[in-house]
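Q: How do we represent a protein-ligand complex in a form that can be generated token by token?
A: Start from the inputs.
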Amino acid sequence: MTLRYKFSVFFILFILFTVFLNNIGSIASFVVLSFIFFMLFKYGTVFFGSSWKPMKKGAIEKVSSIIGRNDNVYDIGCGDGRVLSHARKSKNCRVTGIEIDPIKCIISYLRVRGWKKDVSIVFGSMYRKSLRDADVIIAYLPQTTLDELQNKFLSEMKKGSRVITCVSVCKKLCLVKEFKKDRVYVYSNTK
Ligand SMILES: C[S@@+](CC[C@H](N)C(=O)[O-])C[C@H]1O[C@@H](n2cnc3c(N)ncnc32)[C@H](O)[C@@H]1O
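Then emit the structure tokens for the protein with S-adenosylmethionine bound:
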């Protein structure tokens, strides 16, 4: 995420906040406040070193088709929880979401029903969370982030577990399946 991009988001938020303070109590302030929330939801992730791009419906369906009912599924960088929510509904599997953006984390928690048994939505960095329990790790992340994570995958993945990526690729793992149209890739740590 470039510094210029971060600065632009910060600048727009600053302007909006100033307009909000100058119009506090009026109808205009509610409109501006809604826009501030929209900006924070859509672009707030840039302040945590990444961007947010939700996975497309076709890709989500392909990801769910790989998951088994008994799998323990991790979505590292779970965003608004749409992938885990689909996995829960279609497979009723155990799910864990890890998300660094607090707003997305709350949305994920509500969407996937984080208070339920077998559901866990964790606020924090994926680099600090162990992936040893996961049968399936969903990683829809920028290529640079995925490159940094590959050694973590290799050292923490248990035998037979899979990593599912979308758009970005894992060069150090073994590709076992791919859905070319949706750019969904399934990797294993064993041949
Ligand atoms: C491309 S979005 C994918 C969102 C979701 N998995 C989906 O498919 O719709 C990447 C997400 O990873 C999150 N993220 C980036 N770096 C992170 C980190 N170090 N720890 C946890 N989450 C992170 C971002 O906040 C963003 O929501």
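The beta strands are 72-76, 94-99, 119-123, 136-139, 162-166, 174-179, 184-188. The first strand starts at residue 72 and ends at 76.
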